[in-house]
Design goal:
Shape: elongated
Number of strands: 18
Number of helices: 25
Radius of gyration: 28 Å
Strand order of the largest sheet: 9-8-10-11-13-12
Length: 668
């Protein structure tokens, strides 16, 4: 391969990227222009992928964590032969384009994850590498490495500044993820100027302290040095690798190279012309792809794809030698559940005292784990409280990586991003636990899981002031409302043990999108399902739990989680007074909204306008169900430190308070 051809290919990436941003009059040309050489070496000499089969299971994964430089990956995908046309590149950042401003999973073939919020792709890549190691440990057999791929990423100064990357890097180093390789675009520039104004620590030393294998390439255009560093990184199997490559943002632009303006704005027509002249590139036409460069990229794509043919032959032999494992592998990768996956789920007898739903969750999780070997997760240093340990399983640790219990440590934000990476990798059904209050630390990753419709399960315990003495710092108030505000996230707050069982059944079986379980610290009565509707009704989001005699209810009491028992108690007293009252258990707004309109109107009749919702959290959003004539009994201040029964009384979350409000409505 001649240096002249290499340079032509690298400049092709640069100019496609610059032309795309210029045509859109919006975007970030600087990163693609500066990082083009390292991306070229990686995509043409190392990565295994198949443009004709972007979802090939044993492909190498590539994450552009610095998603603002999206024209870099779009150019690479088009040049190497993915079904992304030149016209698609010309529609960069336009309505319904396949080349959105930041890479979006599911919208562009070959894009492995949605990136842009800095640091998220970094953590996603760690999760992908963890999933690869667990699946390799579970499925590979001597002579049959059917799971054997690397995870690569290009990360930026901004990624390394964000706190999530610190958390994820620490975890990756501890685990020794040797098949994780990051190219660091060390261009020294951020939006506000030189990184010297804010980012001056020794990044290489920092990653060495994280137990990473660290190399430095001092010239971002030295493709020989980049290739040598990548080979050394692949040879290092016990540690993740960071290759710090000193690049120049907007490389080749006479007026904007090494300047902040190259980061987030087009070069401008005049400067683009000067850049092309400086690089010896024809001024016209825009989006030029020299034939020699295209031939080189397409050859690289075909060569990378040949690895899939080798893998297919290996998998055929594997199937003959280990048919049961091969069937299980297909099941996992297709996102399917094994026969009888929910047969071992427990039934809970009526019990006035009853267990906390967090405790029940642990029991149900273990019942499911016995059938679903790809349930894989853990907690952010709260497993004893979250009840997220799978009994009889080892911890997920190197070098074996056979265990299913992940010790995420006190790293909630990274945990969220890592869970997303596991789900994106495929084959894994990831879950992660923490207290509901700390969902705030995870919110950016939860939002991206919802945006990508990833099947991630969050186990959020200690879901209200019911956690008691820990006080307002740990008592969630606005978190339920905040989670419900995320489009595509299903929140389930079960009322008792059997609803908790059904919450897990729903979370595992749901076809797409993340699910958050909100679970209590305190014990709750286990309702008597011999006289009440079956807990399986949870799958409908809301259902009539109890109604006193009468054809039409005068008033509805709607509750979730621990407050359903309060609604039932108040309803009994109203019934004793001669009122017809209905209690609705509403564990999930999202599931309820997916039901047909006639079912929703059966549960909450439009002509019954006296309605009270009761929930130990912010009332925000509840008026969509109680209407302008209804009332919400919730909490609109921070909590306090005291035993939980006292807190419920002091905050007015009692049957007496519900009864008083019901009398007010009935008088109207």
């Amino acid at each position: 391969m001649s240096l002249e051809l290499d340079t032509l290919c690298i400049d092709t990436i640069r100019m496609l990227s610059a032309d795309g941003v210029e045509k859109a009059r919006s975007g970030h040309p600087g990163l693609p222009m500066g990082a083009a050489a390292m991306a070229y070496v990686l995509w043409t000499r190392f990565m295994r992928y198949n443009p004709e089969d972007p979802a090939w299971a044993d492909r190498d994964r590539f994450v552009l964590s610095a998603g603002h430089g999206s024209m870099l990956i779009y150019s690479l995908l088009h040049l190497t032969g993915y079904h992304l046309t030149l016209d698609d590149l010309k529609q960069f950042r336009q309505w319904e384009s396949r080349t959105p401003g930041h890479p979006e999973y599911g919208q562009t073939p070959g894009v492995e994850t949605t990136t842009g919020p800095l640091g998220q792709g970094f953590a996603n890549a760690v999760g992908m590498a963890m999933a690869e190691r667990y699946m390799a440990a579970h499925f590979n057999r001597p002579g049959f490495d059917i799971v054997d791929h690397h995870t690569y990423a290009i990360v930026s100064d901004g990624d390394l500044m964000e706190g999530i990357s610190h958390e994820a890097a620490s975890l990756a180093g501890h685990l020794g993820l040797g098949k994780l390789i990051f190219l660091y675009d060390d261009n020294h520039i951020s939006i506000e100027g030189s990184t010297d104004i804010t980012f001056t620590e020794d990044r290489a030393a920092r990653f060495r302290a994280y137990a990473w294998h660290v190399q430095e390439v001092f010239d971002g255009n030295d493709i020989g040095a980049i290739e040598e560093a990548l080979r050394a990184a692949r040879a290092e199997t016990a540690r993740p690798s960071l290759i710090a490559v000193r690049t120049h943002i907007g490389f080749g632009s006479p007026g904007k190279q090494d300047s902040p303006s190259a980061h987030g704005e087009p070069l401008g027509a005049e400067e683009l012309a000067r850049t092309k002249a400086n690089l010896g590139w024809p001024a016209e036409p825009a989006f030029l792809i020299p034939a020699e460069a295209l031939k080189r990229f397409r050859e690289a794509g075909r060569q990378a794809a040949s690895a899939q043919d080798v893998w297919k032959a290996r998998f055929a032999d594997y199937t003959a030698a280990h048919p049961d494992l091969a069937d299980e592998w297909r099941l996992w990768m297709n996102g399917e559940l094994p026969a009888g996956w929910d047969e071992a789920l427990p039934e809970f007898e009526a019990d006035e005292k009853g267990p906390a739903t967090r405790a029940v969750s642990g029991t149900v999780l273990n019942a499911l784990a016995g059938k679903c070997g790809n349930l894989f997760g853990g907690s952010a240093d709260l497993a004893p409280s979250n009840k997220t340990l799978i009994k009889g399983e080892e911890d997920f640790e190197g070098p074996a990586f056979t265990g299913r219990n992940i010790r995420f440590g006190v790293r909630e934000h990274a945990m969220g991003g890592v869970l997303n990476g596991m789900a994106l990798h495929g084959g894994i059904r990831p879950y992660g636990g923490t207290f509901l209050i700390f969902s705030d630390y995870m919110r950016p990753a939860i939002r991206l899981a919802a945006l990508m419709q990833l099947r991630v399960i969050y186990v959020f315990t200690h879901d209200s002031i019911g956690l008691g003495e820990d006080g307002p710092t740990h008592q969630p108030i606005e978190q339920l409302a905040a989670l419900r505000a995320i489009p595509g996230l299903t929140l389930i707050r079960p009322a008792d043990a059997n609803e908790t069982r059904e919450a897990w059944r729903t979370a595992v079986a749901i076809p797409e999108g993340p699910v958050a379980l909100a679970l209590t610290r305190q014990g709750l009565p286990t309702l008597d399902r011999t006289v009440l509707p079956p807990a399986e009704m949870l799958a409908r989001g809301a259902y009539t739990l109890w109604q006193s005699p009468g054809e039409k209810p005068e008033i509805l009491l709607i509750g979730t989680g621990s407050e359903v028992q309060i609604a039932l108690e108040a309803a009994g007293k109203l019934a004793d007074e001669g009122h017809c009252v209905r209690v609705v258990s509403m564990p999930s707004w999202e599931l309820f909204e997916r039901q047909p309109a006639d079912y929703r109107s059966q549960v909450i009749p439009e002509d019954v306008t006296r309605r009270i919702a009761v929930e130990a959290g912010s009332p925000m959003g509840w008026h969509r169900y109680v209407g302008v004539s209804g009332a919400v009994i919730g909490i609109e201040r921070f909590g306090a430190s005291a035993p939980y029964r006292i807190l419920y009384e002091k905050f007015g979350l009692t049957a007496a308070a519900v009864l008083e409000k019901a009398h007010d409505l009935l008088r109207k």
